[in-house]
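Quick one, probably user error.
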């Protein structure tokens, strides 16, 4: 903390600390002739003085400097660390929609990214952004800066698959042919895509979800209606028919434990 705060500045330099960092309460540091200056308690006192409105403006300016890394509320340090991890995850994956069991980072820096996102999206009495409305608004804005879709109105599972497809389209210029069974980061993208194309699934999507998929070239597959009286229609159940394709080429008992003869290859096996 340059400019008149040699104790904190020296401690940060010796410990190679940059950015926001809450000084532990029991930290002591050498300052001038004082070998055991209680830096942690001193920082705690500055917080108390600020809350009481007794902190000198000159000192407040020094502590607010970017190089000071002062954490006025200890909880903010944890929040900044969480944001840093989520930024890293977003840069690497292209989305902020991890599976709930997903972890991110290396070694001691490993964080439960999936659980973080599940918690942050909570609403109601247990709002994941905190009880303070002003702080919650600020944190929401910070998350939106990382990924505008972090709080999308649909499940993160849907968002994750969608983002993978969107990235493929961005890279190839068009949606590639993806068959069920094709995995990306553990997700069966092909199976998910086929399910979105089903008319029943498409009908359950929101307008915005449909618009997003349509822009990627995804459209629902409509089943052609079977015309009554056509060769492929063998009577409905109400008419005593089977509702199955008409047989051609001789008798073939349905339900018998034997193969149909080649002549009735159109009959369901």
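Nope, works fine. Designed sequence:
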């Amino acid at each position: 903390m340059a400019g008149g705060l040699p104790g904190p500045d020296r401690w940060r330099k010796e410990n190679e600390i940059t950015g926001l960092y809450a000084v532990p309460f029991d930290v002591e540091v050498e300052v001038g002739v004082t070998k055991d200056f209680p830096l942690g308690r001193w920082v705690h006192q500055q917080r108390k003085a600020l809350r009481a409105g007794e902190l000198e403006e000159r000192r407040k300016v020094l502590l607010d400097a970017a190089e000071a890394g002062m954490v006025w509320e200890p909880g903010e340090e944890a929040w900044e660390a969480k944001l840093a991890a989520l930024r890293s995850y977003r840069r690497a994956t292209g989305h902020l929609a991890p599976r709930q069991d997903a972890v991110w980072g290396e070694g001691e820096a490993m964080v439960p990214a999936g659980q973080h996102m599940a918690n942050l999206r909570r609403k109601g009495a247990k709002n994941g952004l905190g009880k303070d409305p002003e702080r919650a608004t600020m944190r929401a804005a910070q998350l939106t800066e990382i990924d505008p879709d972090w709080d999308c109105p649909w499940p993160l599972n849907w968002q994750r698959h969608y983002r993978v497809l969107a990235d493929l389209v961005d890279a190839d210029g068009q949606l590639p042919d993806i068959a069920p069974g094709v995995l990306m980061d553990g997700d069966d993208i092909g199976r998910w895509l086929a399910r979105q194309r089903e008319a029943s699934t498409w009908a359950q999507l929101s307008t915005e979800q449909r618009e997003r998929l349509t822009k990627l070239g995804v459209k629902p597959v409509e089943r052609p209606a079977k015309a009554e009286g056509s060769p492929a229609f063998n009577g409905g159940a109400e008419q005593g028919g089977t509702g199955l394709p008409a047989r051609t080429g001789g008798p073939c008992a349905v339900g018998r434990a034997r193969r149909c003869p080649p002549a009735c290859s159109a009959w369901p096996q």
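The mean pLDDT is 81.
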